[in-house]
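Workshop exercise sheet. Pairs work together: one partner reads the sequence aloud, the other fills in the structure field after running the prediction. Swap roles for the next sheet.
Pair: D.N. / O.F.
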Amino acid sequence: MSSQPHNVTADLNYRFLDPSVPIPDFLPKDRKEPQLFFWINDPKTGEARDNALTRSFPTTIHDLRGREAELSIDREGFGVVKGEGVWEDADWEDEGRIEKEYYKLSEELIKKQTGASRVVFFDHTIRRQDHVTAGVADTPQTRQPVPQVHVDQTDKSAENRVRRHTGADAERLLKSRFQIINLWRPLRKEGVWDVPLALADYRTLDEARDLHPSDLIYAKDNIGETLAVTPHEDHRFYWLSGITREEAILIKCFDTKPGVAKLTPHTAFIVPEDQRPAGYLPRQSIELRALVFYEDQPRE
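Structure field:
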């Protein structure tokens, strides 16, 4: 494919409340209005369930090629990194090596890119589009790309992450500026052309209008939150065409600092077949989720 910017039009999926689905009885009853939920594994059925209706909206997704160096995670809410944190001797099947070697490279990358004093990774996910094409179920061991516009964290869940993953340091760290950043990278040298990421420029959002908490139920006593997104004509989405393992995307999911981009709605999306190069390979990617602390900056 040409190295010139490659804008595409594709469907982006959004979740809307289905009022006909009963709310689990262990969720809070004092909310002003019903809230979306996604139950990862309902023990009664052994399957995931939710109360969402999915609707698709054709959207122009603008290519970032040639503009990578212009981006700022504190302005747009995302950034592109080239040639840093690349795991040359990668073994993506070895969880121990990922956490020991790739985490270290990624910690150095994030600190260099942000100026943060401390980075704490709390999980990672490898996603393979091969599982979709092979008809393999989406399980914790066989994760697939997520084709829904969302934000990974809310204010509440972000603070809970700090308390859960930093132990005795939590209350001290909560007094400083902190962020949650996802680091997303393809696993293959060949570019991702089939199911890449689309990211919304934070400046085109209205948080009160567009973002709505959604319960993420791991278990009855372990409930997190994400943000569902309502589509709006003002939103402007971007992708990095043909992104390779030499490149990575920083995705901001939360920030305590006022006056900067707080987060980035994002989603996997399907590039139309006629917009893909011949011989492309299915997406394989890894995303690391990190608590990022600025201990020299008081929380405002």
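Discussion prompt: Helices lie at 95-114, 129-133, 155-165, 170-173, 207-210. What would you look at next?
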